[in-house]
Amino acid sequence: MRTILARWAVLAGLVALWELLTRRAESPFFPWPSQIAEAVHERWLSGPPSQLYLTDAVGEDVLPSLGRLLTGWGLAAVVGVGLGIALGRSQVLSDYVSPVLHFLRAVPPPALLPVFIVLIGLGSTMQLSVIVFGVIWPILLNAADGARSVPATQVETARAFRVSRAQWLFGVVLPSASPKIFAGLRISLSLSLILMVISEQVGASNGLGRSLLDAQRDFSLRNMWAVIVVLGVLGYLLNSGLLAVERRVLRWHLGSRGQQADTT
Amino acid sequence: MSRVSAIRQSRVVLRAAVGVAALLAAGEIIGRIGLVARNYLPPTSDVFAALWRLLADEGFGTDVLVTTGNWLLGLLVAVSIGVPIGLLLGSVPMLNEVSRLVVEFLRPIPSVALIPLAVLVFGTGTQMRVFVMTFAAIWPILFNTIYGLMEVDPLAKETARSYGSGRLAVALRVSLPSAAPFVLTGVRLAAAIALILEVTAELFGGGGRGIGTVISVAIYGSGQKDVVLAATLVAGILGLLANLALEYGGRRTLVWAHQPGGAR
């Protein structure tokens, strides 16, 4: 309890310091935090009580972005875990495709944006494809890693008991790969946020990336900062949510704390 | 190397080659049969021809050098900020606890969202790119350093202390070497992220030179998709080389570490 208080106190202290410094600097690029808060309030939080004080702009900016992000990330998770486990359990398959996978992972996804635009055209499908392609690699490679390292005793026990294929997959392989999978999911979640913003800056009619672009065109520094702050809060909430899920799912896993280090 | 492992080794290489060849062939066939229009997704041979032209072009050499130089600079700045802060937070758990909330709000802010702001403040040159890269690449370094310090064997520290080593000596001789593999894992993750951000900053920030600039000129200027793909290929190869170099360098210098931490 005391550490939680201390954390908020440190955050509040830094924001106060920020306010003080920006007030003193009087730079047009650095609006005061209180001005940013006002912009956030005005744009998103000044709605009628019947809408929980949210304005219609929330439906214009935040919800479409959130939808794209979660759909893209979810698709990447399903496909990535499936492929990753197949790769992890089949040495032959992994021999054939891993060099290609490692190369594709190394390609900076924003560089592929133009390719996706010409292939798919502008619109939500393009944005989803960019997100899926950009965030699938950490999930896929981590799932493959996790599936590869099922303890030998478990493999042999499962074999001795002649468990069914489904039991082998869902009872043995998936649980023992799950700590790694979650590590991959966490890296991918932060990446999804990045790719969501990038993909929305080209040819999206709504979303936070689009608002950022509008703010940039209007030279509205306040709105620019407001979008950045909202993105931070959104990321914080998503991360906390995933961590809560992970803690529940991996309760049995002693080393689950040990996987925390590799978040990006 | 035993005979069996030599055979296995050559089989892996062969399969890897088959995998790469299959991808290239698929690219060629899709481009040729007109599944998608040729100027949208050019066949592999066109891309390689474009790559050849690019490599023969002296200007492109400069672009690759600019991207690589900026990238290394960004990584260096991220390391020289991330590692000291990580060491501080990792060795004083109280600070780590208290600062966590601030970090959790800052980290998820997608650095691409900062590009418009950074362009206004720093212009479109190296400074802007380094700022954007540092903001994105610092987190894996910071977290892996903190985590590495927390994983130091307490027994080793106690032993060193009971042999009369002071605090600083323990930190330098015991904690740092045992945390080094984790730090390196962080740097490897950071290198991949920094490259993505360098290319993105070039693409979206505009101005200057670099692989991203070549891509954006090829999209918006001449519409040459083969050049876009060829330049993207170069970016991917750069990323792949960096990862290999860091992995190899880590294995050579950190021979005492059997199990590097974190995910790949």
Any descriptors?
heterodimer, A: 264 residues, mainly alpha, MetI-like fold, B: 264 residues, 2 domains, disordered C terminus
Q: Stretches of chain A where pLDDT falls below 50 for ≥5 residues?
A: 256-264
Q: Structural class of the helix and strand makeup of chain B?
A: mainly alpha
CATH class of chain A: Mainly Alpha
- Total number of domains of chain B: 2
CATH architectural name of the largest domain in chain B: Orthogonal Bundle
Q: Which spans of chain B have pLDDT < 50 for at least 5 consecutive residues? A: 259-264
Radius of gyration of chain B (Å) = 23 Å
Could you state the order of secondary-structure elements of chain A as H and E? Answer: HHHHHHHHHH
State the fourth-level CATH superfamily of the largest domain in chain B.
Answer: MetI-like
- Strand share of the residues of chain A? under 5%
Overall domain count of chain A: 1
Count of individual helical segments of chain A: 10
What does the radius of gyration of chain A come to? 22 Å
Calculate the terminal CA-CA distance of chain B, rounded to whole Å: 27 Å
Looking at the chains present, what oligomeric state does this protein adopt? heterodimer
- CA(first)-CA(last) distance of chain A: 27 Å
Q: What is the β-strand count of chain A?
A: 0
Largest β sheet strand count, sense and barrel closure of chain B: none
